[in-house]
# Entry
Amino acid sequence: MANSRTVYLVGAGPGDPGLITLRGIECLQRADVVLYDYLVNVSVLQHVPPHAETIALGRRPRFAVGPGGD
# Structure
């Protein structure tokens, strides 16, 4: 298949950029396109090469003010 592509799903941990694996960093460094949501710590995106397209997806996080969220 001359037109085959590879997709990697990289988990960035529970908000701590220090928890990303070395393999995850390698995948980001080789990426041409990176899809991410607003919950990812933006420092993880430092591993994305300048030529790569980054696309933000998903909803923005909601933060509850108090009990009941209001």
